[in-house]
Amino acid sequence: MAGLLSRIRARVERLGFRALYRLADLTYALGVATPKRTVAGTYWSYEPTNPHGDDPGLAALDRLPNDAVIFDAGAHAGEHAIPLARDTDRRVIAFEPNGESADRLARNTERNGVGSRVDLRRVGLGDASATLTFYRSTFSKCSAFDRESATRWGASVAGTESVPVRRLDDLVEGAGDGRSDEVDPVPPPDAFKVDVEGHEAAALRGATETLAAHRPLLVVEVHEAGAAGGDSPEETASDSGPTDLREWLDARGYAVEEADDVWICRPRDSAPPEA
């Protein structure tokens, strides 16, 4: 009986996700934008739902000054980037390797009139500069650099594309030494939000120099999936699980505050902003 109930529950979840993503396709096709109320303010989006409206990570980011520079890795359709930029002087650098999501982010950015403050970069972030195969999922938010993540919840791979991946240290002004003249540098961050479907540790590894030099606030959505990491948590953050990632952050002077599946990580050498 328990096995039967589990299968029924899984099927209902798959049907629910399929209906949700078909609805999103429809709202974008018809141009139906609705207001989304969040802890960082209200904005307009063609997305049919508002999954991050009360997100504690979004709330922590919104406590930053109105002229802060925020990096948003895994920006999707702008659920964090747009409310953080709207009605402020903040600059948000949005990294989104999924072409469909990047197109939707651009459209939502235009709808809210924040194109001058949201800088869209159609690249992934990792611990090495490369061009990798990206798996586009039928459930767009599941799209990832590995097939397993792209086929969660009953989704399937809709197609593949080659996507550039960069170390953040090679993009930030005055950080790494691997930046190409073809890449526009980005200013040092006050905060770095990471939600990259199981590859959070790799993205953070590629930002090691930036974290050491600029001590940004980190907001990390933790997933279990991902590629294998390095030799030890003292040297590298293994993508094998949250324990290794926590040890890696601790070794670099970051205190982790858990809020559901979001980690709010502050450098121990700075006080948290006042509410």
UniProtKB/TrEMBL annotation:
Matches recorded under NCBIfam families: fkbM_fam
The keyword Acyltransferase is annotated on this UniProt entry: no
GO biological processes: methylation
Protein name per Swiss-Prot or TrEMBL: Methyltransferase, FkbM family
Organism: Halorubrum sodomense
InterPro entries attached to this UniProt entry: FkbM_mtfrase, SAM-dependent_MTase, SAM-dependent_MTases_sf
Domain of life: Archaea
Organism placement in taxonomy: Archaea, Methanobacteriati, Methanobacteriota, Stenosarchaea group, Halobacteria
Short name of one Pfam family: Methyltransf_21
Molecular function, one GO term: methyltransferase activity
Keyword set, alphabetical order: Methyltransferase, Transferase
All copies of domain Methyltransferase FkbM, residue ranges: 72-254
Record-linked PANTHER family: METHYLTRANSFERASE, FKBM FAMILY PROTEIN, SLL1173 PROTEIN
